[in-house]
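Q: I'm writing up a methods section and want to include an example of the input and output format. Could you take the sequence below and give the corresponding predicted structure tokens, formatted cleanly so I can copy it straight into the document?
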Amino acid sequence: MTDRGTMRRHVAVALGLIVLAAAPAGRPRAAAPAALTPPMPGAVNADSTIRDGETHFAHLWQLTFGGQNAEAYWSEDGRRLILQSTRDGYPCDQEFVIDLTTGATRRVSTGTGRTTCGYFYDHDRRIFFSSTHLGSDSCPPPLDYSKGYVWRIDPDYDIFTARPDGSDLRRLTTTPGYDAEGTLSPDGERILFTSVRDGDLELYTMRTDGSQVTRLTHRLGYDGGAFFSRDGKWICWRADYPSDSAATEYKDLLARHLVRPSTMNLWVMRADGSDARQVTHDPGASFAPYFTPDGKALIYSSNWENPHGRNFDLYLVDLKGGRPVPVTRDPSFDGFPMFSPDGRWLAFSSNRGGKVRGETNLFLAEWKP
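A: Here is the clean output for your methods example:
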């Protein structure tokens, strides 16, 4: 699949809903401030949209209203979220930071090209994100679905770093091709990301200055959306490994900067790339895995119950595998889950309650273990 932001946008357009990852950023995190009750000025109680069976949600708050808002990831101090959004007239995703104590929202990307995968690091003194703005000021052209549903692996994506207000922009990756889907190790030392630099979509780590790039995966297919466990010992990710009969099509599409998302499952491995093993074995697309605070399970989004349908829900699955346990039951899209540093809140994106089909907003659920 393509980067998480492109995934969200493409499924919203092509299927009328949103589809498509995060891990704890920075060093050991402080508890979220009391000011997050309610989460922020302007937040609206959305308990009326809690569906039957959503027993993990004590309360629900809606933070955004209209457009496309997704991939909201926490700051180390639990006071801010960085997300990608089409707000304020921007035709494709830009990065914004929301202050949960004041409600203030600020664009931190350039306002040109398309962005994805924002993250805080350096004890919240800096952020990084992926952007296509060096390739073009405009949004990438729309895709042709006449030969089936595909995602773009845009070769103009590179990873950039800036201060949390968007100033002091610096480029971290310079190799040709796709570099995106970045997250951070819990010690704050390394960025985990997906790149096509060696000819296939593989997982890599690099230091936060862009040096010491290390490849972690080596199997033909799409490895992406990877995140560290809170203790930094494990990595979870989504993968789509084509069968021998599908390998030729996969390579042909990748040569045209495309992938066809047919089946994705979740995997885990040690932080050095060893001991990789598959966690889910379900039909459809499972993506956006994130470790639960205790590190014993993954929360993620999937349509496995109806792999040809348009409904994606959040699920929990034990790291040892087994039958997934539903977390959400809304009949549209729920995705991009990430727990707050103190484990009290779950940030996620959802189509629930939208006034326009495909509208995706950011929600905070007060979590009941």
